[in-house]
Structures are given as C-alpha cells and as structure tokens.
C-alpha cells in the first residue's frame, strides 16, 4: 500500500472540514482563544472516540461517550473549550455539556447526538454556560478552512505552543489525508484509555473499523506518553471521517493496515509533541526497554523509569545517574535479573550487567544535555520490547502547578 508523508496544513486540510475559534472569556487571560468548533460538511461523517479510564470522568467525557453510542458513530461536530475542565461539577456540569451540544446542533442543523464536547482546565469550577451560549453563533458564522488553524490554539492550557500535524497518502491517484491537533503539558499519563486530541480524515471509514483503528493507534501513541504520571479526568481522542476523498478503507488486511499506519503516525507525532512540551520540560526523553521476559514486564520497566521523579530530575541536570534507572526497573514489578541488565543513554553504555560500565563523565553529561535523549534498558530476559515518551522534571513544573488554580 502507499506510504504516508508529513506536510503543512490544518484540521481542514482533509476535504470537508471547517473550524473556528473565539475568546469567550473562559480563560483568565484577556482575549485568549478558549472555545473552538470543528465541523464536517459531509452529511455522512463517521466518528470514533477513546476516553479517559479515570473513574472521575468529566461531564463532556460522559456526554461524548453517550452521543457516540446513540449516533452509532455518526457525529459531525466537536465543541471544545479550555480554561475549565467541567469536571466534578455535578448535574449542573452535565446540563452545561448537554446544552452546548443542543445549541450547536440547532445552529448546524444536525442532531444533538451528532455533537461531541470536550473541555480542559481547572477541575471543580462550574463552566459558565452563558459565555459559551453567547459565542456559539459566532463560531458557526466563522466556520472556514482559513480559520481552522485557530482550533489548535483554542484548546491550549499550560502548553507553550500548538501541536498539529497532517499526513497525506495517495490511492489510485486520489489524495487522502489525516490531520490532528492535540493539547497536553501537565496531568499527562493517558490510559485511554489534561489531554485532548482531535483528528480529521477524508478517508471513507465505517464506524467499527474507525473505532478499532483509533483504539490501536492510541495504544501505540498516547498510551505511551507520560509527563507526570497523572491520568486526567478529561482525556479525549476523537476522529471524524468525512469520506470525501473517495478513498474507502476496505475490510482487507492491507487496506486496514495502510490506514492504521497513517493514524498511528499522526497520533505518535502528536504524542511526542506533548511529551516534549511537558510543563517546565527542557528535553524530550524516549525510554526504550529491550529483552523483556514478557510484553508486560517490558512495559512495567518502561513506565517505572519514565515516571520516576528521581530519574526525571537527574535528566533535568544531565546527570548520568544510571543507578536511579536500574532502581526504578527493580521496583517496577517486572521479573528480570539485575546482574544481566544494561543501561544506555543514546549509544553510550552507562551500566553493563548491573555494574558501572566505566564511562567518561563529561561524555555522558554531553549525551544527556540534548533536547532529545534516549534511555535504553536491556533486560536480557527475553524478546519483548516497550517504548514510552516522557520529559525531564524541572523547578518550573512545580512553579506552574503550585498556583494552577489560583
């Protein structure tokens, strides 16, 4: 099947999509974009979603799950806000989510179950419905391809920059696209199961195939990223497929594999951006575990290393403290022999068979003092592998989160 290539664009690069964004006043920062509308002009648009596994699920997560089920995967619009999570807000929060979907549906002349909602921001504060109601007509009027890039900015909270990507392929001379935007910098360890991701594609995909594809892509991307080990109440990944490219994803294994490759590339690209933009982060870190006895063991070690505050603070200081890495592997719950374990930073061996490898300190510091670093742990216990993306932990993370609500 054809390959996918990365190119410039927005959520409206795939045929049939428009978007808009406004400053509704939900965020404390004056004139900051905080409300967006994404819409598919195709009457038959399919949709899929993967959401947080946190038992404390925000109202928009609950409603979007319900609407996806009620519409049987035939949704056409997404309304998302930043600055307020609408989580732990009781029946009032659910009414706000429901009224948002109903009001948007009236303006767009579609059914309320065809509208998905998402929120991100402070937990426990009521989301002011009046601010959203006032701006929805403006969002509807300003829907356009030209305004689509604004959607990536309107969902940001503590992110330092928008996160977007577009991939293109071609089947029988017909171009097909997958585009995505995401936000996330803190409270990031999705078990999809504060992270939001919205994807659009002009491929024609039946709802069951779209759902399975998204779930698999998320497992190999957003479920492989951690900033601080916290799983948000609002984690949401949604994809809309307009079908307007004229390229249909068939049930054949090769067709589904081709589409999965594109979806995974988009999700992994955004996941790496999230890890690299972790709150206060100075470097993107890839944790690779090789030689696991089982996939579970490899994953346990990777998560323990990626989430260890001691490992992450050592990374912030470019300190080759490999003992912290081996220690984290040891308490991970995985079965392995420490006396057979090797630890590398990039291609430099720090630990060989559980002992200091005799590396040069200055060289090791230089290897760690990069914008992108790879920690590689070889357990020599089997053939299983795992990979996660994370970041270092700096003083700035504490500064941001010590006053996030106030």
Describe the structure.
The protein folds into two domains: 5-276, L-amino peptidase D-ALA esterase/amidase (4-Layer Sandwich), CATH 3.60.70.12; 284-402, Roll (Ubiquitin-like (UB roll)). It is 33% helix and 25% strand. The chain contains eleven helices and 16 strands. Strand 9, helix 5 (207-219) and strand 10 form a beta-alpha-beta unit. The radius of gyration is 22 Å and the shape is globular.
Count every beta strand, where a strand is a DSSP E run of 2 or more residues: 16
| Arithmetic mean pLDDT | 91
Count of DSSP-assigned helices: 11
Q: Order of strands side by side in the largest beta sheet? A: 1-7-8-9-10-4
Tell me the series of helices and strands, N- to C-terminal: EEEEHEHEHHEEEHEHEHHHEEEHEEH
Structural Rg: 22 Å
Low-confidence stretches: none
Percentage of residues in strands:
25-35%
Q: Biggest sheet: strands, sense, closure? A: 6 strands, mixed
Instruction: Using the 3D structure, state the CATH architecture of the largest domain.
Output: 4-Layer Sandwich
CATH fold label of the largest domain: L-amino peptidase D-ALA esterase/amidase
Category from helices, strands and their pairing = alpha+beta
User: How far is it from the N-terminal to the C-terminal residue, by CA?
Assistant: 52 Å
